[in-house]
User: Fold this.
Amino acid sequence: MYIDFHTHGKLAKKLPFSTVYTDWLFAEARKAGLDAVCLTEHFNTMQFSDLYGYIMKKYERRGDCFLTPQGLRIFAGMETDIAQGGHILTVGIPEEIMELNRRLEPFKEKGKFLPFDELMDLFSKYRVLVGAAHPFRAGGHIPELPFESLKRLDFVDLNGKDVAENEDLARKRTETFAEMLQIPMVGGSDTHQAVQYGCIRTEFDRTADTVEELGCMMKAGGYTVTVAESAALQVKAAGVLKRALKEIHASGGDYVAALTQTGD
Assistant:
């Protein structure tokens, strides 16, 4: 099973949710060779509940994940800001991710983000896998948190955007961090659109349908995290495309139709 642990279902947090765009993303993820994605949408994105509500109604349920007609498994998740600076990934039961997002409503604005340990206290009440997203990204301070706090994490994200900038440095830092905490390191593209799919992926020798299975497979090790030779080009192209699509939207155009030749 090829899986991407860090993906998004919208082009940007402040843009409206589009069913056509999200369906297109999932179809493109499958074309890129992925068997599964963790949909770790920003917790304070516009229409978070609409995005997940649509997926839960549209796609076939398979254990804890959803299966698209093309055969892509979608695990529900979320990316949450912390007060200290940095982002935390969660992957869990769809209904519980929805509930967690509702409970985080008072903390979605900058200046109101929960501190790491308070967020972890909340997550501990749910069946979620919790990871450090791109821990060495500029502006984040996750590695500076107390060791005992960091030990509460389940995994670390080797991020596609970071490996595209400097693969050797990103891998060395992230591997060392994961080894220090004795937790798995997995790969996530951090994509908001299709060009970036496949720039990094994690390969397991079997398929998971539940969060528990996924967690056990991560802890067991024996998987590989592969960076594509084209990763730097993919990430650069994705950034250019994202800016162009946002400009189309800002000028009153339909960026979804520009990509898919359809309307929403």
Notes: The chain has nine helices and eleven strands. The two ends are 31 Å apart (CA to CA). The longest strand covers residues 73-81. The domain at 2-260 is CATH 3.20.20.140 (TIM Barrel).
